[in-house]
Amino acid sequence: MSSSSTSTATNPSLPGENFEPRQTHPSPDYTPDPSQSLPLSPTRQALIDDILALYCCHPTVERVKRYTPDCVYDDQFVYANDRYKMAGQWFGLPKLFKESKTNAYQIVTNERELIQFRYEQSWTFALIPKTATLNALVSLSLAPSTVDSDFIQVKYHKDQQNDKDYSHEGFGFLFKKFQADQVSKRMSSAEVAEFKADEGAGKEHVRRYGTGGKEGEAPVKDL
Q1: Tens-digit pLDDT profile for residues 80-118
Q2: Are the CB atoms for 183 and 93 separated by under 8 Å?
Q3: Is the backbone of residue 141 left (phi > 0), alpha (psi -120 to 50) or beta?
Q4: Rounded CA gap, 130 and 58, in Å?
Q5: Is 130 exposed, middle or buried (0-12, 13-18, 19+ CB in 10 A)?
Q6: How far apart are CA 7 and CA 20, in angstroms?
């Protein structure tokens, strides 16, 4: 697969905002082909296994520790810019979904500080008898200080479900940041409370791009 975008950070101690991978895609189709998946080392496979377990509504404190305290999580509905907010999202998922299943995934990028994979996930809602199946691209920007360790951590986790990247502009972004800011505070969860100290982790201003197209610092990449 072609090389993907990498973060602009040169100092590994900088907050997660500095490690954002950005790309647009030639099409909105991220259907995975497991037969074309790139091989991973055991430590990298263990990271992916933990991330997929989180998607499957099986959160644990140890799995959430796959993220650095100053991490960023960025998808269609959420912009969480520390691990305390991240914990609220992962431990909140089982309240929204009765079941979540990874049907298939494909590793498309395996670089020193970046892993990307396509995946197909089926989400069964908790309150209504409906299952939604979605395809997406996940980009994991790795914490440089952990890439050679037995426990690799993530600085920036991006989940894209269409061909465009996120502009971080407008009402939609304000909503996804607001809900991420509130969820952890409103949860009575001992597991989430374990990450309360991360609320004070280093943060920087939200990067705004004006557009989610290639003009917004998001080059076209066929992943």
Answers
A1: 999 999 999 999 999 999 999 999 999 999 999 999 999
A2: no
A3: beta
A4: 20
A5: exposed
A6: 5
Query: Other CB atoms closer than 10 Å to residue 36's CB: what's the count?
Result: 11
Angstrom CA distances, 159 to 13, 118, 121, 138, stand at: 23, 10, 12, 5
Contacts of 73 (CB under 8 A, 6+ apart): 67, 79, 80, 81, 85, 86, 89, 157, 180
**Backbone phi, psi, residue 127, to 5°:** -105, -15
Whole-model pTM over 0.90: yes
Residue 110's SS3 state is strand
User: Are the beta carbons of 154 and 140 closer than 8 angstroms?
Assistant: yes
Tokens of 15: 């907050």
Question: Exposed (0-12), middle (13-18) or buried (19+): which is 102, by Cβ within 10 Å?
Answer: middle
Among 183, 179, 139, CA closest to 157: 139
Counting beta carbons within 10 angstroms of the beta carbon of residue 173, is it exposed (0 to 12), middle (13 to 18) or buried (19 or more)? middle
C-alpha 184/C-alpha 199 separation (Å) is: 10
Residue where the block lists tokens 């431990």: 91
For 6-45, write each residue's pLDDT tens digit: 455 668 889 999 999 999 999 889 999 999 999 999 999 9
Token digits for 40? 């991973």
The torsion angle over the Cα atoms of residues 89, 56, 20 and 13, rounded to 10 degrees, is: 70
